[in-house]
Amino acid sequence: MKDMIQRFGAAMFVPVLLFPAAGMLLGLSVMLLNQDLFPWAVEGSAWVKVSTILLQASLAVFKNMALVFAVGLPIALAKSASGRAVLATLVSYITFNYVIGGILQFWGPELGVNYVEGERGLTDVGGILTLDTNLLGAIVIASLSVWVHNRFFDKKLPNWAAVFGGTPLVVIVSFPIMVLMAIITCFTWPSIQHGINNLQTFLVGAGSFGVWMFTFLERIMIPTGLHHFVYGPVFYGPVAVDGGTVAHWIQNIQNFASNPAPLTEQFPQGGLMLTGMGKVFGCTGIAMALYATAKPENKKMVLGLVLGAALTAILTGITEPIEFTFLFIAPALFALHAVLAATMATIAYWFGVSGNFQTGLIDFIFQNWLPLGSLHGDTYIVQVLIGLSFTAIYFVVFRALILKFDIPTPGRGSAEAKLYTKADYKGAQQSDSSSGVIDGGQASAFIEGLGGKDNIALLTNCATRLRIKVHEPEKVAETQYFQEHGAVNMVRNGDSFQIIVGLTVPQVREEMTQLTRA
To answer: How many CA atoms lie within 13 A of 255 on its CB side?
Structure first.
């Protein structure tokens, strides 16, 4: 079950990685419409018309988020022919919503649904007025469709029926399942929506406590890979606000930018998106502490390693490369990191900070500071001061604990705890021939270390990690072997393994997939 959940978490990254680019375009277009910055941005001008077109274009991903997730998940979940799985899932998802729309059109009042456009609980999916099942509906339908695809896509049919093989067979088998799911949804989802509305009220009413607990759980669950299921339903699902906090912020950012009222009053749910505070300011302090505590002869090497990992965390919000440098050798430091990150987010919320701060500095700037800076600049100055104060706290506390307990962080301990430089990796590649690796590639080396391609039962990835399930765990090489071939570290749990690679993991996974099929 844990493997399945982690696989879903990895699949979530496929559509999520579309958001930063769209968000940057959105922030720029909102800024271009700001008359305080551009006095010529008057209603009816060519400037406003072009900027509005850019604004609408940047909203395309966010306004169709459920559809994007429905067609994005099969890319990672399908065992083969993922492109065909995407097509089948698109057809299935549209069918599911058409059936719901048809049922509500005739029996909506009996089911307690007022089937009228604009009614709360309804949404438009591909031109279909349907129940707003949001992210949950997309995940369930995509999962069912991919399950049918994995089971029936390669099924051999008699020659006379061969035209129905492959994707047509998947769609045919999926059709009655979609009809059944639509019927079940019409009977159950209105009650579920009522419960979600109550949960939204609780989360918003929880205020600072809700911000602290949510941020803490989002951090502390990272080692398990289950943190996606902490933030996913809040950021991209209806748990905190209809449509998810990210979409709500994006779609209303122009209103927030023109309203001088405190952001925590305009959008209190945005406090749950302050998780990026720990990523930007916390990881900066951690990186400084790792460098400061390295042995003098290793400082140059550690600077090269930590700088890249820190910049990744600061700019994009992907923290695993730096967090995994100390997670396994000092779990208590990671727990402290979760506590400090939650406390920092909570204090920022006390001072009126709210918004889309759940990733890194790029989104901080383009989805918050630039478009809203003219009216909320004072709040953002306070936010930065809070963040820098915690950077200092992180540095002092981490440095003191590393030295006091002689924790073998990079540059201090054994090779097992060490991150390797690019030169180390190239050297390892040159010596691969003597260790039995087929060629010099990292993907090939990983396959060899996992016991060969026949030992790999399942191969997926998330933003920075390869997730592998093997037939015989005893054939898998020691962690040091993978570090020598460019991995940051490795997580072992029975027959399930996670190799922390970094942001190049999609390319490594794709090359490994090709090699295992050869």
So the answer is: 8
Q: How far is CA 191 from CA 104, 204, 297, in A?
A: 15, 20, 64
- Beta-strand ranges (E) seen in 30-155 are 122-125, 128-131
Q: What is the 3-state secondary structure (H, E, C) of 370-402?
A: HHHHHHHHHHHHHHHHHHHHHHHHHHHHHHHHH
Number of Cβ atoms within 10 Å of the Cβ of 226? 15
CA–CA distance, 447 with 513 (Å, rounded to integer):
10
| CA nearest neighbour of 487 among 434, 431, 415 | 415
Nearest to 74 by CA among 145, 136, 153, 169: 145
Per DSSP bridges, beta strands 496-500 and 489-493 are antiparallel
Q: Rounded mean pLDDT of the chain?
A: 83
Please identify every residue annotated as catalytic. Answer: 462
First-to-last alpha carbon distance for the chain, in angstroms, is 30
Given a contact cutoff of 8 angstroms between Cβ atoms, the answer to whether 83 and 65 are in contact is no
Determine the length of the chain: 518
pTM: 0.63
Q: Tens of pLDDT along 240-282?
A: 887 788 888 988 888 998 899 999 999 999 999 999 999 999 9
Q: CA 503: distance to chain centroid?
A: 13
Helix or strand (DSSP H, E) at 270: none
289: Cβ contacts below 8 Å, ≥ 6 apart: 394, 395, 398, 399, 402
Residue type for position 93: Y
Distance CA 114, CA 117 (A): 9
Residue 257, both tokens: 């930018």
pLDDT for 35-59, tens place per residue? Answer: 767 888 788 888 888 888 888 887 7
